[in-house]
Design brief:
CATH class of the largest domain: Mainly Beta
CATH topology of the largest domain: Immunoglobulin-like
Shape: elongated
Strand order of the largest sheet: 1-9-6-2-3-4
Protein name: Cytochrome c oxidase subunit 2
Number of strands: 11
Oligomer: single chain
Bound molecules: copper (II) ion
Strand content: 15-25%
CATH superfamily of the largest domain: Cupredoxins -  blue copper proteins
Enzyme class: translocase
CATH architecture of the largest domain: Sandwich
Number of domains: 2
Number of helices: 7
GO molecular function, one term: copper ion binding
Largest sheet: 6 strands, mixed
EC number: 7.1.1.9
Subcellular location: Cell membrane; Membrane
Length: 319
């Protein structure tokens, strides 16, 4: 009986494994929903890695299974296997392929990080300080803050900055985020509102200025695919655009002490109208709280924002 050439079988297997891996890379559903402008970039990279990993897994495990059957010891066979040792071309081949894969993934990941705004978090080319160097007599402009209250002096230079679309612009909304054992506090410097969870309008370019009062915490929203450390003494930032209305978890992802696991909050992405009414409501609540401060109140009657307000003031993280 005539045999099908092994090279032909290998070719067919290669085509099938490639198609299967490409399909798995797009349909693995390992990641939660995408809710930020940055999420598709991260997922594109992740999907490529899943595709490559699937192909490698199938090739390696498939070969083991085929060889287990093909080269099993037959009944009565007491001979040794053929003594095969060393194969330079094969070794060069299986060293070169991972090298190319790792270099390719490395370059791709730097590209994704850069498009997310990770390489120039301060937007270095566009800050007024730099303009001041170039244009004599414009030094005053550098000291003036813009509407967002962000000046080159208080704009953190570490973290994730403006994405490709937002380059050179200041954020629509700035929120000061303070991590502490074991909670996140969100302060809106423009409106004086303080909250235990983050509220943002959908589609807005949001900048979080992160700080920590004690140890290193890490602010992570899985649905945004974004994560940034909050470091004591070193301000960091995280800029993002939420793309889907909804409520998503905020998780501390840096082991920060005994109750690290309970250091959770949530980010509520509103429509712009809903966001405005949330802000108005909380502004009124904050004013009422200031009036009531001298009178003893039952904490059960207070909203989170009201309850936290005096503590925030005491710690000096409020406005
Ligand atoms: Cu923490």
């Amino acid at each position: 009986m005539q045999q099908i050439p092994v090279s032909l079988l290998t070719l067919v297997a290669g085509v099938l494994i490639t198609l299967f891996s490409l399909w798995v890379g797009q349909h693995h559903s390992l990641l939660p929903m995408q809710a930020s402008e940055q999420a598709p970039l991260v997922d594109g990279f992740f999907n490529v890695m899943v595709t490559i990993a699937t192909a490698l897994f199938v090739v390696v495990e498939g070969t083991i299974l085929i060889f287990l059957v093909m080269f099993r010891r037959r009944k009565g066979d007491e001979t040794d296997g053929p003594p095969i040792e060393g194969n330079l071309p094969l070794e060069v081949f299986w060293t070169a392929i991972p090298t190319i894969i790792v270099l390719g993934l490395g370059i791709y990941s730097v590209d994704v990080y850069s498009r997310m705004g990770g390489l120039e978090p301060g937007g270095h080319n566009h800050t007024p300080v730099h303009v001041a160097h170039q244009m004599p007599g414009s030094a005053i402009a550098a000291t003036l803050s813009d509407a967002s209250g962000i000046t080159p002096a208080n704009d953190p230079n570490i973290g994730i900055g403006a994405g490709a679309k937002e380059q050179g612009k200041t954020a629509d909304l700035v929120v000061d985020v303070t991590g502490m054992q074991f909670a996140w506090i969100f302060n809106y410097p423009d409106s004086g509102v303080t909250a235990g969870e983050l509220h943002v309008p959908v589609g807005a370019d949001v900048q979080l200025n992160l700080a920590s009062t004690d140890v290193i915490h890490s602010f992570w929203v899985p649905q945004f695919r974004l994560k940034q450390d909050a470091i004591p003494g070193i301000p960091t930032k995280l800029r993002f655009v939420a793309t889907k209305v909804g409520t998503y978890p905020v998780v501390c992802t840096e082991l920060c002490g005994g109750y690290h696991g309970s250091m959770r909050s949530q980010v509520v992405v509103h429509t712009p109208e809903e966001y405005e009414s949330w802000l108005t409501e909380n502004r009124i609540a904050q004013q009422q709280q200031e009036l009531k401060q001298a009178v003893a109140v039952n904490p059960a009657d207070l909203s989170v924002s009201e309850f936290l307000a005096p503590y925030v003031q005491k710690m000096g993280i409020g406005k």
